[in-house]
Specification:
single chain; 169 residues; mainly beta; 12 strands; globular
Length: 169
């Protein structure tokens, strides 16, 4: 593994097996990171056609609601629990999915179509998950929700997420 920043490690794209020691390494780096997150990219670089990542996030992390254009995202829970929140164009919650490992009874996997605003609301101290999408990585293919606080203001972001109404059933 090659460390690119406090939050990002890359493999060389060859075979890589991970275990609890890898998660511990990512968690330790996330604990020291200002955004309280760290990822191991299994792909060799941002230009790779397939993007596969093991991501560890602390509950104090905030992921601003966002959507992707021309890219599907999958997420599979390894450890921890969260709510996956989906939104309409105006920022109203349209769906809340209880996510946790399969043995804990929640949904453990999702496939997010493109153009759907989404985020995670953490319910455990740490969340570890696998995320995949197609590459190459292009920040212009992601739109941050203008109706939600920016990631640079996690306190406002957590207040925003805490005050969201659940969708009517």
């Amino acid at each position: 593994m090659k460390q690119i920043s406090q939050e990002v490690f890359y493999s060389n794209g060859d075979f890589l097996a991970v275990d609890s020691a890898t998660i511990t390494l990512l968690r330790e780096n996330a604990a020291r990171s200002p955004r309280r997150r760290c990822r191991l990219c299994f792909h060799a670089d941002a230009a790779s056609a397939q993007q596969e990542m093991l991501i560890v996030m602390h509950r104090s992390s905030y992921v601003r609601p966002h959507r992707h254009f021309g890219k599907v995202e999958t997420l599979g829970i390894v450890e921890g629990a969260c709510d996956a929140l989906l939104f309409d164009e105006a920022g109203n919650v349209t769906r809340t999915i209880n996510m946790s490992p399969a043995a804990d009874g929640g949904s453990f996997f999702y496939r997010m179509p493109d153009r759907v605003f989404h985020t995670l609301r953490f319910r455990s101290e740490w969340l570890t998950f696998i995320e995949t999408t197609i590459g190459p990585f292009d920040p212009a293919a992601t739109e941050a929700a203008t109706w939600a606080p920016p990631e640079t203001d996690p306190v406002a972001g957590h207040a925003f997420l805490a005050n969201l109404a659940k969708p009517a059933i």
